[in-house]
Design brief:
Blueprint: E1 8-17, E2 21-25, E3 30-34, E4 48-55, E5 61-64, E6 75-84, E7 88-92, E8 98-102, E9 119-126, E10 132-136, H1 139-142, E11 157-165, E12 169-175, E13 182-188, E14 201-209, E15 215-218, H2 223-240, E16 245-246, H3 254-261, H4 265-277, E17 281-284, E18 287-290, H5 302-306
Parallel strand pairs: 13-15
Antiparallel strand pairs: 1-2, 1-4, 2-3, 4-5, 6-7, 6-9, 7-8, 9-10, 11-12, 11-14, 12-13, 14-15, 16-18, 17-18
Length: about 325
C-alpha cells in the first residue's frame, strides 16, 4: 500500500533499531516510528499498533502514536502558534509540531491576518507533494453545521471567532453552546471599531436577524449606553489635560476624533451634548474645556496657551488635531 499522510493505520512492529526507534510494516513496506513518538509502554516485536502518518522535518513519511486534533479531510479550530511573513501561519495540531496555513490562504492586508493565540477554522489537506497542509474552512464547510439565530438574540451581546475579514466587513462564527455548532454573523465595516483579524475572538451586539437565520452585528453599544461611556472617557481625558482643555469639538474632523478616541464623530457629538447639558464642559471656538477651566472671553489663559501634551505639540488655541 502507499502511505497517506494524515491518516491512521494499524501496523505491525517489524524490528527495533537503536537509537532511532521501531520500524512498522503493513506486510510490504516499512515506516519509522521514532522513540519520541511512543505513547504508553514500549511495543514488542510482532505487536500491532495504531499510528498516525505524517512527514517529518526531512520530508520522510513517519509514524506516531500521538493523537492529532484532526485527520485528513476533517475540520477543527486550531490555535496559531507562530506567524511567518513569507510562509503564513503555523498552527498547533497536537503532535508537538506545527501545521502550515499558507500565505495564499490569508488576506493581502496584514492587519487582517492572525496573530499567535488566535484560533482559525481549518481543514486538513495535502500539498502537491502529499505533505500535510491546512486550508481555511469556508461557508461550504461551516454552513451545514450552523443553526438559525433565535429572535430573542436581538440587541443581545454574543461572542465568536472571526472566520474572514474583508474591507466590507468581518464574518463571525458565533458560539452555539449546547444548542449547536454556532450562528453565522457579519460585522459591517461601519460597525467595526477597529480592524478585525482572522481567528480573533470578538464580541458583538446583534442588530438584525435575517430571514435565513444569520445576523448582523455591531461592536458598538446602544447609543444611550455608549453615550455614557464615551462621556466618561472624554471627561477623564479633560481632567488629565493641562488647563482642562482639548483641541477637539463638534467641529473637529471625523478622522481626528476616531484616531484620538476610537469612536465615530456622531458618538463624540452625542457625548459632548450630554456633558454640555449637565454643565460639565463648554466650547470656545474649536476647543472644549471643563466648565470650571474655561478661559474668559477674549482668549485662553496663559497656562492653556503654553501647555504642551506628551508629544510636545502645542495644546493652546490654534493648535491642530495631530496630537496623540
Amino acid at each position: 500500500m502507499s502511505w497517506i499522510a494524515g491518516t491512521y493505520q494499524t501496523l505491525r512492529v517489524a524490528r527495533e533499531v537503536s537509537p532511532y526507534g521501531y520500524f512498522l510494516t503493513d506486510g510490504e513496506n516499512e515506516v519509522l516510528m521514532h522513540y519520541t513518538e511512543l505513547v504508553g509502554k514500549k511495543p514488542k516485536l510482532g505487536d500491532e499498533v495504531e499510528v498516525f502518518l505524517f512527514f517529518d522535518t526531512e520530508d520522510r513519511i513517519s509514524a506516531t502514536m500521538k493523537r492529532p486534533l484532526l485527520t485528513l479531510g476533517e475540520m477543527a479550530r486550531l490555535k496559531v502558534a507562530d506567524v511567518h511573513p513569507r510562509l503564513g501561519c503555523f498552527l498547533e495540531i497536537g503532535l508537538g509540531r506545527q501545521l502550515l496555513l499558507p500565505l495564499s490562504e490569508l488576506s493581502e492586508k496584514v492587519e487582517y491576518r492572525p496573530l499567535p493565540g488566535d484560533e482559525v477554522h481549518v481543514i486538513l489537506g495535502h500539498d502537491k507533494a502529499g505533505r500535510l497542509l491546512a486550508t481555511l474552512a469556508g461557508e461550504d464547510e461551516l454552513g451545514p453545521l450552523v443553526f438559525e439565530a433565535p429572535q430573542a438574540w436581538r440587541n443581545q451581546w454574543v461572542e465568536g471567532w472571526v472566520t474572514k475579514s474583508l474591507q466590507m466587513g468581518s464574518f463571525v462564527l458565533i458560539d452555539g453552546g449546547v444548542v449547536g455548532f454556532g450562528v453565522f454573523g457579519m460585522i459591517p465595516s461601519s460597525e467595526r471599531t477597529r480592524p478585525l483579524r482572522l481567528g480573533e475572538r470578538v464580541a458583538g451586539r446583534v442588530t438584525f436577524i435575517r430571514e435565513d437565520g444569520r445576523v448582523n452585528l455591531s461592536m458598538a453599544k446602544l447609543k444611550q449606553e455608549g453615550r455614557l461611556e464615551d462621556a466618561d472617557r472624554i471627561l477623564a481625558y479633560l481632567k488629565e489635560r493641562p488647563g482642562g482643555g482639548m483641541p477637539y469639538s463638534d467641529e473637529s474632523p471625523a478622522d481626528a476624533i476616531k484616531q484620538k478616541f476610537q469612536i465615530s464623530k456622531s458618538a463624540f457629538k452625542r457625548a459632548l451634548g450630554k456633558l454640555m447639558r449637565e454643565g460639565a464642559i463648554t466650547q470656545k471656538g474649536s476647543w472644549t474645556y471643563l466648565a470650571e477651566a474655561a478661559p474668559e472671553a477674549g482668549g485662553a489663559s496663559g497656562a492653556d496657551s503654553q501647555a504642551s501634551d506628551s508629544t510636545g505639540t502645542s495644546t493652546g488655541p490654534g493648535a491642530d488635531h495631530s496630537e496623540g
